[in-house]
């Protein structure tokens, strides 16, 4: 009885919040669940109808539920719109309607995840939008990300991410020509691309490329205006950097695959060493000058032999062979680290006193026993 009286006398503080706060909270739950809050009370009946962000998953959608949601939604503009399509045996009839709804409501952040569905084709009207500022498209490999015949016009687009789709040189050029204010570009495993020419994208400053597919092996990147580059590639699909004259920060990760399992760690390291040497030779590096220091070659290729003095030597080597540096980050594999970071002496060289040298441990590689 006492508990019942407490419940009856309790104040509903959440319902007293302004609509804008309640709508912000509802953005963090699926739209179907947000709609159910309209049954709580009269106060909640129309709160969800103007939430600034919408997220749909085709697993839980029906044509009727889509129709009800879009009909009752009354906000003139949508800040964020996310649509996920999982495997279906055939096209879903309301996909175009959902995309058109987002574009017509001046969406700023649009995300389309079709990575598990192989029958989706983006509608032609999608090629024109003056409101989208951030766009993420993840599509199946069997489809062209953007039709080549469409004239692109994403006049406000600042950040673009394209993943797992066919992307020809013509299609990429078409996209770039329609994005005059593009600042950030991400391409993850977009097959068929041979030349990524960003010379006309004058505002582009950040480029993130992931290319573990073999098609990227002969791709050329021309990006004279970018300042930051992140490149993740396999040894067989690493693109060629033709022009990156404005580059001030780069993170390069090359994956070296080992085709068979090695029982002994020594065999593993010897195999990785051969792959790495071969890769450097293909790229035109002189192994005697770029891959060895005065302390010898073995520690450069096998971390188990590394000592604190070698880390000092490596940092010194980097400083002496680089014209402009603001920061050096040295990641030490804790799996084989046999000394303490505090024992590493950071070299102090004339002209490099303002360079920030950061030493950190991370588990770069794990071998199964």
Task: Give a description of the structure.
This protein has helices at about 1-10, 20-25, 30-35, 65-70, 95-105, 170-175, 265-280, 285-290, 300, 310-320, and strands at about 55, 80-85, 110-115, 130, 135-140, 155, 160-165, 185-190, 195, 205-210, 220, 230-235, 240-245, 250-255, 325-335, 355-360. With about 375 residues, it is an alpha/beta fold. The chain contains ten helices and 16 strands. Helix content is about 25%, strand content about 20%. Among the domains are: about 1-50, no CATH class; about 290-369, no CATH class. The strands form four sheets. A nine-stranded parallel beta sheet has the order 1-2-3-5-7-8-10-12-14, covered by helices on one side. Strands 9-11-13 form a three-stranded parallel beta sheet. It has a two-stranded parallel sheet with strand order 4-6. The protein is globular and about 70 Å long.
Layout of strands and helices, then pairs:
Blueprint: H1 2-9, H2 19-26, H3 31-36, E1 53-57, H4 63-72, E2 80-84, H5 95-104, E3 109-114, E4 128-129, E5 134-139, E6 153-154, E7 159-163, H6 169-177, E8 184-188, E9 195-197, E10 206-211, E11 220-222, E12 228-234, E13 240-243, E14 249-255, H7 265-282, H8 287-290, H9 298-301, H10 308-320, E15 327-333, E16 356-362
Parallel strand pairs: 1-2, 2-3, 3-5, 4-6, 5-7, 7-8, 8-10, 9-11, 10-12, 11-13, 12-14, 15-16
Features:
nine-stranded parallel beta sheet; F-box_plant; 16 strands; 369 residues; globular; disordered C terminus; alpha/beta; three-stranded parallel beta sheet; F-box domain-containing protein; 10 helices
């Amino acid at each position: 009885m006492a508990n019942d009286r407490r419940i009856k006398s309790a104040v509903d503080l959440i319902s007293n919040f302004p609509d804008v706060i309640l709508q912000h909270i509802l953005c963090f739950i699926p739209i179907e669940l947000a709609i159910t809050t309209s049954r709580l009370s009269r106060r909640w009946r129309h709160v969800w109808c103007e939430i600034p962000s919408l997220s749909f998953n085709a697993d839980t959608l029906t044509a009727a539920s889509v129709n009800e949601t879009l009909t009752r939604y009354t906000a003139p503009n949508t800040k964020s719109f996310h649509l996920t399509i999982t495997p279906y045996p055939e096209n879903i009839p309301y996909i175009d309607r959902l995309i058109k709804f987002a574009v017509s409501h001046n969406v700023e952040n649009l995300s389309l995840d079709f990575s598990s569905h192989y029958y989706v084709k983006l509608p032609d009207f999608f090629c024109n939008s003056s409101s989208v500022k951030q766009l993420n498209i993840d599509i199946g490999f069997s489809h062209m990300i953007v039709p080549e015949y469409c004239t692109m016009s994403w006049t406000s687009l600042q950040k673009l991410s394209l993943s797992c789709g066919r992307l020809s040189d013509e299609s990429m050029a078409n996209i770039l020509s329609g994005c005059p204010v593009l600042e950030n570009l991400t391409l993850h495993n977009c097959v068929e691309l041979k030349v990524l020419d960003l010379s006309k994208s004058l505002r582009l400053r950040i480029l993130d490329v992931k290319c573990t597919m073999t098609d990227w092996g002969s791709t050329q990147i021309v990006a004279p205006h970018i300042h930051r580059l992140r490149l993740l590639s396999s040894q067989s699909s690493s693109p060629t950097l033709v022009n990156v004259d404005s580059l001030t920060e780069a993170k390069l990760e090359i994956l070296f695959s080992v085709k068979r399992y090695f029982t002994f760690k020594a065999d593993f390291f010897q195999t990785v060493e051969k792959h790495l040497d071969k890769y450097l030779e293909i790229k035109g590096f002189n192994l005697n000058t770029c891959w060895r220091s005065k302390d010898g070659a073995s520690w450069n290729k096998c971390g188990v032999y590394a000592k604190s003095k070698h880390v000092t030597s490596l940092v010194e080597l980097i400083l002496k062979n680089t014209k402009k540096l603001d920061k050096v980050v040295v990641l030490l594999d804790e799996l084989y680290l046999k000394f303490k970071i505090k024992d590493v002496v950071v070299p102090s060289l004339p002209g490099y006193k303002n360079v920030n040298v950061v030493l950190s441990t991370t588990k770069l590689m794990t071998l199964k026993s």
